[in-house]
TrEMBL record:
Its cofactor is Mg(2+). It comes from Streptococcus infantis SK1302. One of its GO terms (molecular function) is 5-formyltetrahydrofolate cyclo-ligase activity. Gene3D superfamilies: NagB/RpiA/CoA transferase-like (3.40.50.10420). This is 5-formyltetrahydrofolate cyclo-ligase. Its EC number is 6.3.3.2. It is an enzyme of class 6 (ligase). It catalyses: (6S)-5-formyl-5,6,7,8-tetrahydrofolate + ATP = (6R)-5,10-methenyltetrahydrofolate + ADP + phosphate.
Length: 179
């Protein structure tokens, strides 16, 4: 079921026009910057987006201008993930085609992170998410003490039952309405 849902939502995301995506991205980014979680956070973990996802470049750039420390994920085998300081000069493409830090980097502990901007393909009305299937975020978020938020397109709202190991996101910003 999750596999079929991933495929369906991915197709819907890829079918959005460039103009529609830009309009939604701009609106969601503005909402993100106005959210109390963002305003209060000093250290924010986010992701480097695929072309079909919510685009994080403007978010990262503005957060840095606002004096916030930006972290990005570094993944390892067996579903392990850390968040490391965002240093663009140390990025290389990984096997999934994502830019990821290489060489030496600074890992921050979960207790040092105020807010995680969580990616996902599908979200249900209770803010549970379906990611790409690696389980990285569910494992990381289970003990995470800080805030979590996601920014999604309307086509990403889907009705599904979460698995017992799934961890909901605290806040989901969706184009034109929140849940």
């Amino acid at each position: 079921m999750k596999k079929a849902l991933r495929k369906q939502v991915l197709q819907e995301l890829k079918s959005l026009s460039k103009e529609e995506k830009q309009s939604i991205n701009d609106w969601l980014t503005d909402q993100f910057f106005q959210h109390p979680f963002y305003e209060e956070a000093k250290t924010i973990a986010t992701y480097l987006s695929f072309p079909h996802e919510f685009q994080t470049a403007r978010l990262i750039e503005q957060a840095q201008k606002d004096g916030k420390t930006i972290l990005i994920p570094k993944t390892y085998p067996q579903g392990k993930m850390d968040f490391v300081l965002y240093e663009p000069e140390k990025l290389e493409r990984n096997s999934f085609g994502l830019l990821e830090p290489q060489g030496e980097f600074t890992i921050l502990e979960p207790s040092q992170i105020d807010l995680i901007h969580v990616p996902g393909l599908a979200f249900n009305p209770s803010a549970y998410r379906i990611g790409y299937g690696g389980g990285y975020y569910d494992r990381y978020l289970e003990p995470f003490p800080g805030h979590t938020i996601s920014t999604i397109y309307p086509c990403q709202i889907q009705d599904f039952q979460p698995d017992s190991h799934d961890i909901p996101v605290e806040e989901v910003l969706i184009y034109e309405r929140d849940f």
